[in-house]
């Protein structure tokens, strides 16, 4: 089943044609080959990763919407700041970068996973949610300014407005447990022309399993869109009910 949402809001005439001519999946494949060829290495810190790349690779990263450019006077190399989710996706899923910490190369994916888990205990759940949408070619950016975890774009943000505000939930999450929270989240998303999308991440991994990135295979992601019922659309109905958010269960997001 596919999510039904508002039509994409392209930012300028010809943006849709440009997006169709340059699909995100193609750009990601080009990026993967380029980074793997040069064995690009990122420096791991307590909250993000700084990746040193060639200027043309920085352009590819921007086209694929991975990280943000860090301004510097250096002309030979460009520095890209990646979130933990972005860095681990490039490392573990695309296998096209390496990471170091304090000048020491980290050869083990398990060691990197454990470090990120130590800094952010909820990292496994958030990475599963991030990779779930990224693998479907949705572009994800931080949703901090909208009060959510991510915002999801059909293509590059320079071409189209984001369609979904994304909240990540797990079994021990207190989010959206009461209707007032749901109303607030839905109204905020609606006020910025987005549909609220919740990703429920669940699994049966034990505490020991969480020490390995292979625990991701035990997680499942359930997608739900929540939209506000509008009384203006039902003025001729005999039944009168108080407006409540409409919850739609879905199994698969529409791939851009």
UniProtKB/TrEMBL annotation:
Region ranges (Disordered): 229-256
Any one Gene Ontology molecular-function term assigned to this protein's record: nucleic acid binding
tRNA intron endonuclease N-terminal domain boundaries: 42-107
Organism superkingdom: Eukaryota
InterPro entries: tRNA_endonuc-like_dom_sf (IPR011856), tRNA_intron_Endo_cat-like_sf (IPR036167), tRNA_intron_Endonuc_cat-like (IPR006677), tRNA_intron_Endonuc_N (IPR006678), tRNA_splic (IPR006676)
Catalytic activity, as annotated: pretRNA = a 3'-half-tRNA molecule with a 5'-OH end + a 5'-half-tRNA molecule with a 2',3'-cyclic phosphate end + an intron with a 2',3'-cyclic phosphate and a 5'-hydroxyl terminus
Primary enzyme class: lyase
GO cellular component, one term: nucleus
Domain tRNA intron endonuclease catalytic: residue ranges: 127-203
Family matches, as Gene3D superfamilies: 3.40.1350.10
Record's protein name: tRNA-intron lyase
Record organism: Brassica campestris
């Amino acid at each position: 089943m596919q999510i039904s949402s508002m039509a994409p809001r392209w930012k300028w005439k010809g943006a849709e044609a440009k997006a169709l001519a340059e699909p995100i999946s193609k750009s990601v494949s080009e990026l993967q080959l380029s980074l793997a060829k040069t064995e690009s290495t990122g420096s791991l810190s307590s909250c993000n990763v700084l990746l040193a790349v060639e200027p043309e690779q920085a352009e590819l990263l921007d086209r694929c919407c991975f990280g943000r450019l860090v301004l510097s006077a250096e002309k030979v190399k460009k520095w890209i700041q990646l979130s933990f989710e972005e860095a681990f996706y490039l490392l573990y899923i695309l296998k096209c970068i390496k990471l170091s910490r304090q000048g020491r190369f980290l050869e083990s994916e398990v060691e990197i996973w454990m470090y990120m888990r130590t800094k952010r205990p909820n990292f496994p759940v958030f990475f599963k949610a991030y990779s779930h949408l990224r693998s479907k070619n949705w572009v994800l950016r931080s949703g901090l300014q909208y009060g959510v975890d991510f915002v999801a774009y059909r293509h590059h943000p320079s071409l189209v407005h984001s369609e979904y505000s994304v909240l990540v939930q797990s079994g021990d999450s207190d989010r959206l447990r009461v209707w007032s929270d749901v109303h607030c989240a839905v109204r905020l998303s609606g006020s910025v022309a987005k549909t609220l999308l919740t990703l429920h991440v669940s699994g049966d991994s034990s505490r020991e399993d969480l020490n390995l990135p292979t625990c991701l295979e035990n997680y499942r992601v359930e997608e739900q869109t929540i939209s506000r019922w509008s009384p203006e659309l039902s003025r001729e109905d005999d039944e009168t009910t108080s407006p409540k958010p409409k919850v739609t269960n879905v199994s698969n997001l529409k791939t851009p």
